[in-house]
Every structure is written in structure tokens, then in C-alpha cells.
Design a protein that fits this description.
alpha/beta, eight-stranded mixed β-sheet, 18 strands
Length: 364
């Protein structure tokens, strides 16, 4: 296969969320020029990554662990404003300040092997032939929907947390919330104030975390996720191994019975959910707060997956192809992890390109 008609660049960054912007910043800092030496492709309609799609009731004050992008702090943010507004404005300012020239909306369809050691990145604005790739596509585009018997017969509404509209949409309804993560509990506590009735269902009993969560605990949690990725298994989120923080809101919800959890139902009926022991719950809505999977289908032509189903990484570098770095994947899925991963990926890419990583200048 030849690279005829493709535009040559040294690095393509796919995705302009926290991880992608971190990578672009460090490429800029290393002396690479946007739209000349590297290009950033993002399929979203505007700056802000997945934050722009968050539900309106998720105010900035409720955000769990938002960490500033490298080189620019997020200051004086109003905790009462929707996080989508605050972070879209911050990311927009960031892209403009560092002149990152993000191309959007651009859909990347596939990444394939090209000629001369280059990768071909096929996108809706054309094909790029690149020497290295930073993949920062996150998970938001791949909500996970479990399958249960009778699911297609349900006469009410089913939606995933990715499309959560806010608690007002559930006023007066009977709602089953499925999922024991941070989003599921946040949605449940909000919806309970509006709905006629709520039922919380999870596969495993929730694990609550009391006390401070410091650097040592954070490193231990990341290490658990990192070990799975190193073995080529699909990554777990960092949050999934830390447990739910036992704050005042959760204590209150537990005392009020909102967080009384039921085990996972066995089937879905036209009017609700049912268990094999004879228990049933009537419902108008089933909200699947069941998480997301990594959005990496465009990398399929490169056959990077291991038998376990994931892409094995050494740091951020794909074990099967040293030209490819995944940031915001597995252990770097947190905001602070994404920042560090962006820097680490660029450090290795400089060596791949024959540059000295020690010779790093300030952004132009």
C-alpha cells in the first residue's frame, strides 16, 4: 500500500480532551509546530472533550478530581455553574493560548499501515501519513449497555448515563438505576428527589471509602489498573478500584434509604424488572449507569489487541507497535494521569523521531 495523496506529518493526535491537549502541549513545547509537524484531530463540535456532553446538573463544584491542564491553571471557576460550561470555556482558552489549532469536527475512521514506516490515518478531512500517533479518544463514545433477557420487551424508556438529561426528566416516574459507580450514585441521589420511586441495582455491593485519599492511595489504585493494561486486559477505570467516597451527601442518602441496593435482576419484563426468586419491581425508566469502554475501534486494522481483549502498554507505548501511544487509557484515564501520560508519550516520541528529549523549549 502506498501513501499517495496523504499529507505527511510527524505526529497525529486523535482526540482533544484532557489527554490529547496535554500531548499537543508537550509536542509544542518540544518544538514541533502545529499544522506543520503535528496535527490534532477531534470529532467533537467544539472544545471541551467529553465534558461538553455532561448533564446540566453536574455543576463544577460536584466534579470529581478535575485537574488543570499543563501550563495553565483553571482559576476562579464558579462552583454553581454547569461543569460543561466551565470546562468548555477553559479548554477553548487553552487551545487558543497555546495555538494548538485543533481540527474539528473530524472523524477518524481507521489507522492502517502505510509505506516507509508510516501510519495512515484515514479521516473525514483526508488521510495523514504519520511517523507516530498519540491516541487520546477516551471512552465517552462507547457507552456500555449490558444485555439481559427480555430487554427488548420493556415498554418504558431505557437510556444510558451518557444521555442523562438531569433529574427533572424523571419527575413522577418509577426509575430503576443500574450501576454502582460514581455516576450511578450521583444520578440516583438526584433522581430520588424528583421521581415517584427509585430502585438501585448493582452487580456487586458498593464499596465505600472513608478517610483521606492521598498520594499513596492514589498510586496503589493506579497500579492495579496499570497491571491489567500491562497484561493486555481491558482496562478498569481508576475510580472503579478506589471505592465511593463516603461524603455527607452519600451518608444522608444512605440514612434516607435511597442507597438501599438490590442485587442485579435476572430479566426485564414489559413493565419492569424481575428476579428468579419471584421479586419484581415495576418501572417506567431503566437508567443504565454501566460505564464505558475504550473508543479504539479505529485502531483495529493494526491488530494491537492481545488475547485478553485489551492493548498491552509499556508506559503509554503499545507493546505491539512503538509508534503508537495511548493516553487517557487505563491508568492514565484520570485527569492528572492524562497530563503525565501526554508528557511521557511525547518524551518517547522525540526519541523515535531522532530528537533529544532534553532539548525542550517553551511553546512558541
Amino acid at each position: 500500500m502506498n501513501n499517495f495523496g496523504a499529507r505527511d506529518v510527524d505526529v497525529v493526535v486523535i482526540g482533544a480532551g484532557q489527554a490529547g491537549l496535554s500531548g499537543a502541549y508537550h509536542l509544542r513545547r518540544a518544538g514541533l509546530r502545529p499544522d506543520v509537524d503535528f496535527v490534532v484531530l477531534d470529532h467533537a463540535p467544539r472544545a471541551g472533550g467529553a465534558w461538553q456532553f455532561r448533564w446540566p446538573s453536574l455543576t463544577y463544584g460536584k466534579v470529581h478530581g478535575m485537574h488543570a491542564l499543563p501550563g495553565m491553571e483553571l482559576t476562579d471557576a464558579d462552583d454553581s455553574r454547569p461543569s460543561s460550561e466551565v470546562i468548555v470555556e477553559y479548554f477553548t482558552r487553552y487551545e487558543n493560548t497555546f495555538d494548538l489549532r485543533v481540527h474539528r469536527p473530524v472523524d477518524v475512521r481507521a489507522v492502517r499501515e502505510g509505506e516507509g514506516g508510516r501510519l495512515l490515518v484515514e479521516s473525514s478531512e483526508g488521510t495523514y501519513a504519520t511517523r507516530a500517533l498519540i491516541n487520546a479518544t477516551g471512552t465517552w463514545d462507547r457507552p456500555f449497555w449490558p444485555r439481559y433477557p427480555g430487554q427488548e420487551t420493556f415498554l418504558g424508556r431505557q437510556l444510558h448515563t451518557a444521555a442523562y438529561p438531569g433529574p427533572e426528566a424523571f419527575a413522577g416516574l418509577r426509575v430503576v438505576v443500574v450501576g454502582g459507580g460514581a455516576s450511578g450514585t450521583q444520578h440516583l441521589m438526584e433522581i430520588a428527589e424528583e421521581a415517584a420511586e427509585t430502585t438501585w441495582v448493582t452487580r456487586r455491593p458498593p464499596v465505600y471509602r472513608e478517610g483521606p485519599f492521598g498520594e499513596e492511595q492514589g498510586r496503589a489504585a493506579v497500579a492495579l489498573v496499570e497491571e491489567r493494561v500491562r497484561r493486555g486486559l481491558p482496562p478498569l477505570s481508576v475510580v472503579s478500584v478506589t471505592g465511593l467516597p463516603l461524603n455527607d451527601a452519600i451518608r444522608r442518602a444512605r440514612a434516607e434509604g435511597v442507597l438501599d441496593r438490590l442485587p442485579m435482576f435476572d430479566r426485564i419484563t414489559p413493565t419492569g424488572v424481575a428476579w428468579d426468586d419471584g421479586r419484581t419491581v415495576e418501572a417506567d425508566v431503566i437508567l443504565w449507569a454501566t460505564g464505558f469502554r475504550a473508543a479504539i475501534d479505529h485502531l483495529a486494522p493494526l491488530r494491537l489487541r492481545e488475547p485478553g481483549g485489551g492493548i498491552a502498554l509499556e508506559g503509554t507505548r503499545a507493546v505491539r507497535d512503538a509508534r503508537i501511544h495511548l493516553v487517557g487509557y487505563g491508568p492514565s484515564a484520570s485527569t492528572i494521569g492524562a497530563n503525565r501520560a501526554g508528557r511521557a508519550a511525547v518524551h518517547e516520541i522525540q526519541r523515535l523521531l531522532g530528537h533529544d528529549p532534553a532539548l525542550v523549549g517553551a511553546p512558541a
